[in-house]
Structure formats: structure tokens, C-alpha cells
Design a protein that fits this description.
Elements: E1 4-9, H1 13-24, H2 26-33, E2 37-43, H3 47-54, E3 62-64, H4 67-71, E4 78-81, H5 88-98, E5 102-105, H6 108-125, E6 129-130, H7 141-148, E7 154-160, H8 163-175, H9 179-188, H10 197-200, H11 203-217, E8 227-228, H12 236-244, E9 247-258, E10 261-272, E11 284-291, E12 295-302, H13 306-323, E13 354-364, H14 369-379, E14 384-391, E15 402-409, E16 412-413, H15 414-425, E17 435-439
Parallel strand pairs: 1-2, 1-4, 2-3, 4-5, 5-6, 8-10, 10-17
Antiparallel strand pairs: 7-9, 7-11, 9-10, 11-12, 13-15, 13-16, 13-17, 14-15
Helix pairs in contact: 1-13, 2-13, 5-6, 6-11, 8-9, 14-15
Bound molecules: L-homoserine.
Length: 443
């Protein structure tokens, strides 16, 4: 059988990694796919760089600067979108779909924001949009959620799904660095982008959590409903205090089924230090999935980089090659559930979630301060799990006698904890804002 023909849009880290893996493992891949998979055209902005990167392989592909010509090329069966962003990528992907081409993409932002439109278009045109590489790079988490765990009612997912921030948090904890220095190290080592906003503000993780929530619960992708808090305001002090209390702070993407609706949130989270996922260090990713039948399962691996991401892209190319001849109704649905059976379960506003909390504040070392704080918590029926008091390191004479109070609460409504914080901050003995971090037991 003729090889299936692929056009690449973009030849950066992921595009070139995909090309390399496909060439290197060509024989094994065709034995698995049942036919060859060939990249025959690549659209690039920087032709000279691509020529240099391709070397001898340049003989086998045609380079073009005209991206539209690739999505309109009748000789191509699959378009692999590797350019990122949500504007041009959206136009090109929709155009490829309308031309009857299957699409493989690593673009989580595109799917988290425009997924509904893209999947509807794909269903209408009987083509596949495959996106394993969009979440957690080389970890096949989409396949797991969509197929491997299909027997389960998925209860929750908690994932370290951004390597850059996990690297920064690891550096802060292990080497005592502040956020800025750890970020600069991440940039120097090539983990963080020159503009790291999407990573450190939690947006990248929220794109991925949005996609996982849709597949886990059969709801439309709805990035706009995700609660997002990054790690830019995290103080090294909280990492130390958390450690002392037996916790690690991780930026988690959390999706959870509750009686009131679905939680979809990304924020720094205290998790017990003995959990496996708490020990995922550096730029690695890990995703914990809890299904009602299987219980807890954990997936660990590299979430970014040329070949780990290419591993997922090529797996999608093989899947599409195998399913190309299958009637669209007999393929695995894009979001795991049949498209006409998606449900609009509401995403719970962050104020209505239930969590336990870590609170830290600095107070004057006076009689009655603790009593005031515990009274405020009691008024809102919030039970204290742990209370720690530490003499703060006085910076000058005026600050002598100040202490840090750390409170860990039992579970309560987020809106109640916010009320508590505003009452505590109004006390004349309180000398700082209250730092509030959510906690997850993950048990
Ligand atoms: N920037 C992402 C991360 C990798 O740091 O994990 C691509 O999703």
C-alpha cells in the first residue's frame, strides 16, 4: 500500500523531532501502522535554518514558505500542525479539516480555546483531530483517559503538567533559591521560554487541564471557566514551612467530579510529601487519575522537548494511519464520549470549592493574638488541623517580637476562608497579608 502522506506546518523543536523519530524508526513504525508514513512537505518560516537542520534528508521533502499551500495540497492525507498559537493555527487547521485532511497537533492552547469549533468541524467532515502531544508531552495520557480507562467513571485528575514550573519549584525547595533566580536558571537551561508568562502564570497547565476535563467527564472544552493561579507570588518561606509540616508545594492541574459540578483549577497546592507525585522533581510531569473501578493510577514522564513530544505526535500519526479507512462512526470520539452525548455539567466557581487550606501570617508577639485568630476561624465553623508558631527573623529593631503563624485548616468552603482572611487582616496585631494556599490529600 502507498505510504500515507503528511505535511508539517512548522519545523521547530517538535516538528524537527517528529521528522527525526519518524525517519529513525521508519521500519518499526510501518510494521505497526500497516503502511509507511512519509512527511513529504514542510511549511517553514526560516527556510535556511530548516535546510541546515534537514541536511541530506532535504532530498525527500519539499520546503515551502506558503503554509496555506500545505493545507490545500490534495496529495496530503494528514496535516501536522506544529506552529502553536491560536490565530493562524486555527485558520490552517480549520482549512485542512474542510479539505478532508486529518490533523495531528500538539497545540493545547488551540484546543482548549477553540476545541469545540475544531472538533465539530472534524466530525462534520469525517476526519480525525489527534492531539496526544498537547497534554504532558511524551506521557500518553490522552490515550489513557480516552481508551485505557474507558470503563471508569473518572473521579479526579491531579497533574504536574507544566515542567517549567515544576523545575522552578524544585530549584526553590532543593537549593533555597527565590522565584526570580529559579526562573532565570530555567530560562538559561532552556526549560522556560524567553516569555515564560504562560508557564509561570499557570495558563499552559490550565490549557492541558481543560482538555483532560473534557475527556474525563464528557463536557465541552471550556478554558474560560478554568480557575488559574500561577507560582509568581510563591514565597520560599512557604516552601520551607510546608516542608516542616510534611508537605510539598506543586503547581497542580486539578479536575474533579463533585455533586455540585466539576472543579477545573490550576494553582500551587500543598500535597503530602510522602505521595509519589510529590516526589516528581525537575522538569518532569506526572498525572494521577482516579477512576471508580481502577482506583488511583499514576503516569510519569517527560512533558516537553523534541523527541518526547515527537513520541506522542508519531503515535497520533500511526493512529490516524490505522483509522484512516475506518468509518468515522466507528472511530474513538475526539473527546472520548459521543459528540451528541456531551453534557454541560457546570464548572464550579472557585469560591464554591471545598478544600483544606494553609494560611500564613505575621503578627505582633502579644498576648491574645492567637485567641483572636482562632475565634475568627471558629465563628465560621472552620476547624484547625495544625497550628504552628515561629519566631520570624527580625529585619530591624522595629520588627522584634513578631512571629509567623501557620494554620492548616480542615476542609471548608473557599468563600468562608476568604471571609476569615479579611477578618484576620483587619486585626491591629496582624502585620502582613495572609498567604493562602489550597491543599490536596490525594488519597
Ligand atoms: N512549556 C511546557 C512546560 C511544555 O513547561 O511543561 C509544553 O507544553
Amino acid at each position: 500500500m502507498e505510504p500515507i502522506k503528511v505535511g508539517l506546518l512548522g519545523f521547530g523543536t517538535v516538528g524537527s523531532g517528529t521528522f527525526d523519530v519518524l525517519c529513525r524508526n521508519q521500519q518499526e513504525i510501518s510494521r505497526r501502522a500497516g503502511r509507511g508514513i512519509e512527511i513529504t512537505r514542510i511549511a517553514v518560516r526560516n527556510r535556511a535554518k530548516a535546510e541546515q537542520r534537514l541536511g541530506d534528508a532535504l532530498r525527500t521533502v519539499e520546503l515551502t514558505a506558503d503554509f496555506a499551500s500545505v493545507v490545500n495540497d490534495p496529495s496530503l492525507d494528514i496535516v501536522a500542525e506544529m506552529i502553536g498559537g491560536t490565530d493562524i493555527a486555527r485558520e490552517l487547521v480549520l482549512c485542512a479539516i474542510k479539505n478532508g485532511k486529518h490533523v495531528v497537533t500538539a497545540n493545547k492552547a488551540l484546543l482548549a480555546v477553540h476545541g469545540t469549533e475544531i472538533f465539530e468541524a472534524a466530525d462534520a467532515h469525517g476526519v480525525i483531530v489527534a492531539f496526544e502531544a498537547a497534554v504532558a508531552g511524551g506521557i500518553p495520557i490522552i490515550k489513557v483517559l480516552r481508551e485505557g480507562l474507558t470503563a471508569n467513571r473518572i473521579q479526579y485528575i491531579a497533574g504536574i503538567i507544566n515542567g517549567t514550573t515544576n523545575f522552578i519549584l524544585s530549584e526553590m525547595r532543593e537549593r533555597g533559591l527565590d522565584f526570580e533566580t529559579a526562573l532565570a536558571n530555567a530560562q538559561q537551561l532552556g526549560y522556560a521560554e524567553a516569555d515564560p508568562t504562560f508557564d509561570i502564570e499557570g495558563i499552559d497547565a490550565a490549557h492541558k487541564a481543560t482538555i483532560m476535563a473534557a475527556i474525563a467527564f464528557g463536557i465541552p472544552v471550556q478554558f474560560e471557566s478554568a480557575y488559574i493561579e500561577g507560582i509568581t507570588h510563591l514565597d520560599i518561606l512557604d516552601i520551607y514551612y510546608a516542608e516542616e509540616l510534611g508537605y510539598r508545594i506543586k503547581l497542580l492541574g486539578i479536575v474533579r467530579r463533585t455533586k455540585k459540578g466539576i472543579e477545573l483549577r490550576v494553582h500551587p497546592t500543598l500535597i503530602p510529601a510522602q505521595r509519589l507525585i510529590a516526589n516528581v522533581q525537575g522538569a518532569m510531569n506526572a498525572v494521577l487519575v482516579y477512576g471508580d473501578a481502577v482506583g488511583a493510577t499514576l503516569y510519569y514522564g517527560t512533558g516537553a522537548g523534541a523527541e518526547p513530544t515527537a513520541s506522542a505526535v508519531v503515535a497520533d500519526l500511526v493512529d490516524v494511519t490505522r483509522l484512516n479507512a475506518v468509518h468515522p462512526n466507528n472511530r474513538v470520539p475526539h473527546l472520548a464520549f459521543q459528540p451528541d452525548l456531551l453534557v454541560n455539567t457546570p464548572i464550579i466557581p472557585i469560591n464554591d470549592i471545598i478544600s483544606s487550606y494553609y494560611l500564613r501570617l505575621r503578627v505582633a508577639g502579644q498576648i491574645g493574638v492567637l485567641a483572636d485568630i482562632t475565634r475568627i476561624l471558629a465563628t465560621l465553623c472552620i476547624s484547625i488541623d495544625v497550628l504552628l508558631q515561629k519566631k520570624s527573623e527580625a529585619v530591624d529593631a522595629n520588627q522584634e517580637g513578631e512571629i509567623d503563624i501557620i494554620v492548616i485548616t480542615h476542609k471548608t468552603l473557599e468563600k468562608n476562608i476568604n471571609t476569615v482572611i479579611s477578618h484576620i487582616e483587619a486585626l491591629s496585631t496582624v502585620r502582613s497579608r495572609v498567604t493562602r494556599l489550597r491543599m490536596e490529600a490525594l488519597n
